[in-house]
């Protein structure tokens, strides 16, 4: 077990790692999957409401059935590969920078040959942040919900498996530094919810190999409106560039573009 450190006076390993080493016992973990209880996972739940998760890095709280520390959502892909989503609350470490909301990770454990015999990797979802180089605002905050869509990493492992497991996470309450209250269910990919954001326009654009202009578009947008551009056929290494220019009369206004890779 190796770690390079991160500069904080107190910074526990992630909840998934602590569970792997049995530092967080099974009784303190809530197991979930879309189909609920099955022979392979009899303790799995299909949904939970108002579940209180204790801060997993609080040394004064012992993990137990009455002090839940995390939600574990396993996914089993092709060739026996296993990875999972983890929902947890880091309330006391990292100088309090993670105490404002729920953390979402996708974790991958692998038993392998070599000096250490196993490996662990995880990716943190930037759920709420709109900054490219700052993860301190990447948590699901109280009063909001977040759909955990498949990451590029998990789609490369097994697209079909991750497409069927898309948690919907809502943060119902927070006692900062102590615990967080969440509700979790699953999105049905065959019947997704209706769009609740009003769109001023929606356009579908296709890219083609060997052309740099087939997908070009100039869009004159009005302030305070949402516009959706859907690019298809970008391929494995496709590139989509966007430039935002404000009118000279829009002094002090801002324009923001979000990219989402499906």
Structure description:
This protein has 262 residues and is mostly beta strands. It contains 2 helices and 11 strands; from the N terminus they run αβββββββαββββ. It has helices at residues 15-20, 152-163; strands at residues 29-31, 48-54, 70-76, 82-88, 103-111, 118-124, 145-147, 167-175, 179-186, 201-206, 227-232. The strands form 3 sheets. Strands 1-3-4-5-6 form a 5-stranded mixed sheet. A hairpin with a 5-residue loop joins strand 3 (70-76) and strand 4.
Characteristic key phrases:
262 residues; mainly beta; 5-stranded mixed beta sheet; 2 helices
Per-chain topology:
Elements: H1 15-20, E1 29-31, E2 48-54, E3 70-76, E4 82-88, E5 103-111, E6 118-124, E7 145-147, H2 152-163, E8 167-175, E9 179-186, E10 201-206, E11 227-232
Parallel strand pairs: 1-3, 10-11
Antiparallel strand pairs: 2-9, 3-4, 4-5, 5-6, 7-8, 8-9
Look at the helices and sheets and give the structural class: mainly beta
Q: What profile does the largest beta sheet have?
A: 5 strands, mixed
Care to count the β-strands? Answer: 11
Q: Unreliable stretches, pLDDT < 50, 5 or more residues?
A: none
Quaternary state of this entry equals single chain
Helix residue percentage: under 10%
- Following the backbone from N to C, one meets helices and strands in this order, namely HEEEEEEEHEEEE
Shape: globular
Spatial strand sequence of the major β-sheet: 1-3-4-5-6
Mean pLDDT: 79
Count of alpha/pi helices: 2
Radius of gyration: 21 Å
**What is the distance, rounded to the nearest whole angstrom, between the alpha carbons of the first and last residues?**
34 Å
Instruction: Give the DSSP E fraction (strand runs of 2 or more residues).
Output: 25-35%
């Amino acid at each position: 077990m190796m770690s390079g450190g991160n500069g904080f006076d107190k910074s526990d390993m992630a909840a998934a790692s602590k569970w792997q080493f049995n530092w967080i016992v099974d009784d303190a973990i809530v197991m979930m999957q879309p189909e609920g209880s099955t022979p392979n996972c009899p303790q799995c739940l299909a949904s939970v409401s108002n579940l209180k998760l204790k801060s997993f890095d609080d040394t004064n709280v012992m993990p137990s059935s009455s002090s839940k520390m995390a939600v574990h959502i396993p996914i089993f892909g092709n060739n026996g590969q296993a990875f999972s989503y983890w929902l947890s609350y880091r309330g006391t470490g990292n100088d309090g920078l993670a105490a404002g909301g729920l953390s979402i990770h996708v974790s991958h454990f692998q038993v392998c040959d070599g000096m250490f015999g196993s490996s662990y990797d995880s990716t943190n979802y930037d759920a709420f942040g709109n900054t490219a180089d700052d993860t301190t605002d990447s948590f699901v905050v109280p009063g909001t919900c977040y759909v955990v869509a498949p990451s590029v990493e998990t789609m490369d492992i097994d697209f079909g498996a991750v497409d069927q497991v898309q948690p919907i996470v809502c943060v119902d309450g927070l006692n900062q530094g102590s615990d967080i209250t969440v509700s979790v269910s699953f999105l049905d990919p065959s019947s997704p919810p209706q769009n609740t954001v009003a769109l001023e326009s929606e356009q579908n654009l296709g890219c083609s190999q060997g052309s740099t202009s087939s997908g070009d578009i100039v869009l004159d947008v009005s302030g305070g409106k949402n516009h959706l551009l859907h690019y298809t056929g970008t391929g494995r290494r496709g590139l989509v560039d966007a430039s935002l220019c404000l009118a000279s009369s829009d002094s002090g206004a801002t324009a923001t573009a979000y990219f989402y890779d499906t």
